[in-house]
Amino acid sequence: RDTYIEKQFGRLNDMQRQAVFTTDGPLLILAGAGSGKTTVLVNRIANLIRFGSAHGSKQTPRPATEDDIKALRNAIMTGTAAPSWLDGMLRQNAVRSWNVMAITFTNKAAGELKERLRRMLGGEEGDEVFASTFHSACVRILRRWAEEIGYPRSFTIYDTDDSQRVMKAVYKDLNVDDKFLPIKAAINQMSRWKDQLVSPEQALASPAKDTKGALTARIYAAYEKRLKEAGAFDFDDLIYQTVQLLAEHKDVRDFYQNKYRYLLVDEYQDTSVAQFRLVSLLTGPEKNICVVGDDDQSIYRFRGATIENILNFERIYPGTKTIRLEQNYRSTSNILNAANCVIQHNTERKGKTLWTSNGEGDKVQVYTAENEQDEASHIADVIGQHLKEGGHLADHAILYRMNAQSAPIESYFTRAGIPHKIVGGQRFNDRKEVKDIHSYMSIVANPRDDVRLRRIINEPARKIGATTVEVIADLAAQEGVSMLDIIGHADQYAKLSRAVMPLLKFWQIYQRLQDSLETRTLDEFAADVIELTGYKAMLEADAAKGHEDAADRLQNLGQLVNNVKNYCDQHGEEATLEGYLEDIALISDIDSYNESADQVVLMTIHSAKGLEFPYVFLIGMEEGVFPSEMSKYSEADLEEERRLAYVGITRAKKELYISNSVSRMLYGRTQRNEPSRFLREIEPEYIEETRSPVLEQRSRFGGWGDSYRDTVPGGASGYSGPSGWGRSASGYGSGGYGSGYSNRSGYLNREYNAGEGRGFGSAYAN
Ligand code: ATP
Ligand code: MG
Predict the structure, then answer these.
(1) Pick from 636, 625, 676: which is nearest to 402 by CA?
(2) Computed from CA positions of residues 536, 539, 544, 545, in that sequence, does the dihedral angle turn out positive or negative?
(3) In terms of Cα–Cα distance, which of 734, 476, 423 is closest to 597?
(4) Closest Cα to residue 440, out of 526, 367, 518?
(5) Least confident window among 33-47, 115-129, 308-322
(6) Using the 8-state DSSP alphabet, how is residue 327 labeled?
(7) Is the pLDDT of residue 430 over 90?
(8) Predicted confidence band at 669 (pLDDT cuts at 50, 70, 90)?
(9) Using CA positions, which residue lies closest to atom 28 of ligand 1?
(10) Using CA atoms, how far apart are residues 411 and 417, in angstroms rounded to an integer?
(11) Which is the closest atom of ligand 1 to the Cα of 328?
(12) Is 37 a catalytic residue?
């Protein structure tokens, strides 16, 4: 095992090695894509656990140096004895695996981390390292301490759909019109508040600029109250409330600071204010905090992530050691140079240039398609060619800016019989029947969960109408109990007399489910839920009536039971209903991505963060798509888009294919978009361009402008006829972006960039 670790360490370059052997105190590793940040993080944990912290304990003669550690490792390898004081000191200082917490962004990244630690340290020790996402870490903390802040330990985790249901109730309570203040806007504002650690009280107290602001604060307070009554946290709450818990309860804080003496955070550039605060509350007085990130890859600003967290780290933790890594091990130099070209156009960055010794590789292939079908077919051709040459489907990833862009590729691939997998989109757990069954399971776990109860109380229909539900809710509020409590005693309330039978019947079902949970295995319980609630019978009846999707839905429920069984197999005796529901709540899009199957993978660039693939297709590289239409009016938004482009480009190891299409159907509208500015930012020497044969042919007859006018009368995006791109009078700043293509091919030609540097808005005109 030690030899294996040695071999891993041996691979590291000098700077990486320095980072790995810097064991104590605050450490910031700031480095570009593919430079081995995650690799360093894993090796650093292995080093801590295997060889210990470099700082001697009080009895040791002096802190160990890197040379000391080398001497020890040499001794281990050659089987000779190390100087006993050194050996004793280091062994004594070896960090226990359960003292280490590593936080990353996705469950997939956390899983990968665990897997690599297992490989380096062996099963037992590797498993003992607590590697998780921010959200899972918080769930774990709250499961233990939620009662301290007035929530049950068996709390429910609400998803967006649940939140919206709560909001509807709040809107009704406060008499708010969704047209005046859209629920979505209110939810976004609440989310921002929680990311910024603004409590409902603070939101209410802050002098609101307008009525909407003040109203949103009231909504926020009412929403939080309802969630607390239901014993539920939404996703933002998981972090926000954990921060409150740790900030207000010193004993809890001490507990964790003692437990996790070494903290490591990957993808640190995407942490929000709340996440940052969480990390600092968990960091003990020894300040053994190591964060790893890349300011150029910060792509969650819209979700409250703040780049300041990374820029301020050195200020907040005095004595921080900062290490920069500059060698990229992932990509060819053509790919890397293309990435460098793009990101150089951002002004808000610390600035660094990556290099690689991986060789030039092929040039970045840029393809201009006629439309999205043409784009899909081109990609299929390229992949087909690779397969002929012995390549694998799973080595190919198709990345895009927005989920909606996957649809044309998906339908083309399905018709062409190309195995593929979409990460994201409608998730299994978001299907109605699956959510319904999970809701039943939730209320068995947490009887206070009125939101989930409302979801299924009349699903399948059992004659419990909306009016009855409101009466129950009122009674529950009056008596300060849950709605289920009222239902259990429905016969005692005159107001419920008309619905007593169905309510008591529902109560009976509920009790049988509770029995089932106690007496049967978890997957049997899941099957019981589907059966005893009448859900199965309802779908079977639908199927018999010829409802087409009923059979699918039955199948999905079968799959649900399988999933529960898998969960049980994975967790053995520790499997619990809460645990299962928690897993579901925390599964994110990216986690449904299973590498082992040989299929092309499709996902958004956001989901691809931290991953790498031999062949990457970056599609839809067009103005209005990427950068998105919305982002074009703010320099900050534009820079975020550019970072996203940088993330996309740097996922590729061997070859990068970028495509844009002159016409694209998006959201039911045909758009004509110019090639993305990010494309033009790449120096031509790193690129090889091709165009769809159809376009080539067309340009031979009278040029771009004319052919557009002929084929698309009154093009949807304000295409303004035959004026060439470089000569257009309208340009970006003045509205009407798709303002005409040049009839010369070769849009990457520098001459079209004449306006570059004159500032956004006028850069593309004239
Ligand atoms: P990202 O910014 O995308 O998260 P990263 O900085 O975390 O990237 P890693 O994923 O750790 O980079 O490493 C990128 C690739 O380089 C991996 O395939 C990794 O195995 C390899 N690598 C890292 N360091 C070395 C090294 N010293 N020698 C050889 N390969 C290395
Ligand atoms: Mg990484």
Answers:
(1) 625
(2) positive
(3) 423
(4) 526
(5) 115-129
(6) B
(7) no
(8) confident
(9) 11
(10) 10
(11) 16
(12) yes
How many other CB atoms sit within 10 Å of the CB of residue 594? 12
Full 3-state SS string of 370-436: CCHHHHHHHHHHHHHHHHHCCCCHHHEEEEECCHHHHHHHHHHHHHHCCCEEECCCCCHHHCHHHHH
What is the interface pTM, i.e. ipTM, of the complex?
Answer: 0.99
Q: Is the pLDDT of residue 447 over 90?
A: yes
Q: Is 612 a catalytic residue?
A: no
Say whether 583 is catalytic.
Answer: no
Nearest bound ligand to the CA of residue 325: 1
Contact by Cβ (8 Å): 178, 238 = no
Distance, in Å, from the CA atom of 263 to the CA atom of 249, rounded to the nearest integer, reads 20
Structure tokens at 411: 């339908």
Task: Please tell me the pTM assigned to this model.
Answer: 0.78
Name which of 622, 632, 723 is nearest 671 in CA terms. 622
- For 142, the token pair is 């709250």
Cis peptide before 722, with omega less than 30 degrees from 0?
no
The mean-pLDDT minimum among 62-71, 499-508, 722-731 falls in: 722-731
Q: What percentage of the chain carries pLDDT values higher than 70? A: 83
Ligand nearest to the CA of 339: 1
Cα–Cα distance for residue pair 22/321, rounded to 1 Å: 9
Enter the tokens of residue 492.
């005692």
Running DSSP on this structure, what letter comes out for residue 305? Answer: B
As a whole number, the mean pLDDT across the chain is 83
Which pair of tokens denotes residue 311?
Answer: 């820029």
- Which tops the pLDDT comparison, 410 or 264? 264
Burial of 31 (0-12, 13-18, 19+ CB in 10 A): buried
Token pair listed for 116: 């690599």
Check pLDDT > 60 for residue 725. Answer: no
What does the alpha-carbon distance between residue 255 and residue 243 come to, in Å, rounded to a whole number?
A: 14
> Ligand 1 pocket: which residues have CB below 6 Å?
11-13, 16, 31, 33-39, 294, 297, 329-330, 610, 612
Q: What burial class does residue 521 get, using C-beta atoms within 10 Å of its C-beta: 0-12 exposed, 13-18 middle, 19+ buried?
A: middle
Atom of ligand 1 at shortest range from CA of 294: 2
Could you tell me what percentage of the chain is helix, strand and coil, using 3-state DSSP and rounding each to the nearest 5? 55, 10, 30
CA distances from 236 to 83, 160, 206, 267, 481 (A): 51, 11, 21, 18, 26
DSSP annotation of 80: P
What pLDDT does residue 539 have?
A: 93
Q: In a 3-state reduction of DSSP, which class is residue 133?
A: strand
What 3 state SS string does 615-652 have? EEEECCCECEECCECHHHHCHHHHHHHHHHHHHHHCCE
Nearest CA-CA partner of 587 in 706, 705, 443, 424: 424
Structure tokens at 47: 């080093």
Is the Cα torsion angle 511, 513, 515, 518 positive or negative in sign?
A: negative
Active site residue 275: no
Distance, CA 385 to ligand 1 centroid (Å)?
Answer: 28
Percent of the chain with pLDDT strictly greater than 90: 58
Residues 6+ apart with CB under 8 A from 214: 204, 208
**Mean pLDDT for the stretch of residues 130-145:** 94
What is the pLDDT at residue 328? Answer: 95
pLDDT of the residue at 98 = 85
Which atom of ligand 1 is the closest one to the Cα of 12?
Answer: 27
Residue found by looking up tokens 């665990």 in the block: 114
Check whether 474 has a pLDDT greater than 80: yes
Token readout for 618 is 């970056």
Length of the chain: 766
Between CA 603 and CA 425 the distance in angstroms is: 9
* DSSP letter (8 states) at residue 355: B
- Residue 195: per-residue pLDDT: 92
List Cβ neighbours of 411 (8 Å cut-off, separation of 6 or more): none
